[in-house]
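Appendix C reproduces, verbatim, an entry submitted by the partner laboratory led by Prof. M.T., so that reviewers can inspect both the input and the predicted structure.
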Amino acid sequence: MAEEKERDYWWVVAPGEFLQEKLDEMNMDVNEFASRIGYTAKTVNEILKAKCAITTEMAFNLEYATGIPASFWLTAQRKYEQDLMRKQIKATLGDKSIWRNSLPLSELKPRQWVEDIDNKEDNISPLLRFFGVSSPKAWENYYCKASLKVAFRISLAEAQDPYAASVWLRRGEILADAIKMEKQNDKKQRIVIKKALPQFIELASAYGSKSTMGKPGEIDEGMVKLQELGASLGMKILYVQNFKSAPIHGMARWYRDIPVIQLHDRFKDRKAFWFTFFHELAHIILHGKKDIFIKNMYHGNKNPLKDEEANMFAQKCMDDAFKTQP
């Protein structure tokens, strides 16, 4: 078992190894073979030792001399280069267990958001693919370095758990990317969304009376109707379960120039869900397109005045939605 764990996952095979096997099979030495394909013995030796890449011209010459199709040699060369690069990347990653273990793995694994999270490769690359970054350092630069806030617009460096927060935010991006939607003029879109406010309030009134919500991942009728109404207005509404160490309630942002509201998918109190929604909706309608607003989490660039304005907006909507209820 220990030997299996220590085994190199990438078995890198150079095309020269296949050529050597063929030469042995044909009982032919390097000098004769070189003369048959029009190259020097030195060049053939370099192919055998993986010091020379097989070009398209070489591949056809090898086909004529060995009977093995040129496509085989080109595929073998490409696969060798890919496997070699993976091995080199693995070496540069080194021991990144600290970064990996800082992520909320115990909660993340059951959700199956990251494909092959415990793979035999290096167990880091699946997480890098999930975040869409090339290294843990790139993750830090994107999510935590204020100098790069032009890309992400905020810094999570001061968050209680920037690792868990980044997973929640990234999951929302992945879900948002999966929803195809046309960009619109943001000023006109804000007006359209604001005009639809009575419809949002009506939904809250109809579906906001339950005391609790379902299990994580369960989307009830009211949540579906809310998504549908948002989509009809060119706005994406997403539901993403948060983490114990990053109990984020909601987020509002313009992601790829489309308004996005991301909400935790389960609240102990249903009215808290709707209050959070209206709070985030206020940010979309009233505040800057370049800002990211995250509720129930401190982060760099947090604006208390805009948050208070969003709270007042949300409370007004809640009063209108439940004014006839006890």
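The mean pLDDT is 86. Additional entries are available on request from the coordinating office.
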